[in-house]
Amino acid sequence: MQPPTVATLWRAAVTLGLGLLAGTLGTVMHRAVRPWGLVVCLLLVLVIVLVSRAWVGWFGYVASAGGAILAVQVLATGGPGGDVLVTGRDLWGPAWVIGVVLVVALVAFAPRRWVEDERPPTP
Question: Is the confidence at residue 112, as pLDDT, over 80?
Fold first, then answer.
C-alpha cells in the first residue's frame, strides 16, 4: 500500500467535516417531522459516507463515518444544563443512533464496483 498523498489527506479532512455536519444535522433534525425527518437524516448520512468512499477511498470512508458517529455520540449525551437531543423515552432516539451505525456498516459492505470507476484495459 502506498502512503497517502497530500491531496488524499485534504480530501479525508473534508469528508471528516462532512461526516460531522451530517451527524450534527441529523441529531438535531431527526425528530422534526416524524417519521420523515429520521428517514431523510439517515439518507443524508448514507449519501455523504457513500460519496466519501467513492471520492477518497477508505480514508474518506473512515473519516466521514467517524465524523458522523462522533457527532451523534457527543450530541447524544447530556448538555451542561441537563438538556438532551437524543432521548431514550421513545423509539426515535435509539432508532437514530442505531440507524447511523447500520448505515455506516451498510456502506462498508457495499460492493467495490459501486464506488470505483472501471478502467478499460490499455492496449
Answer: yes
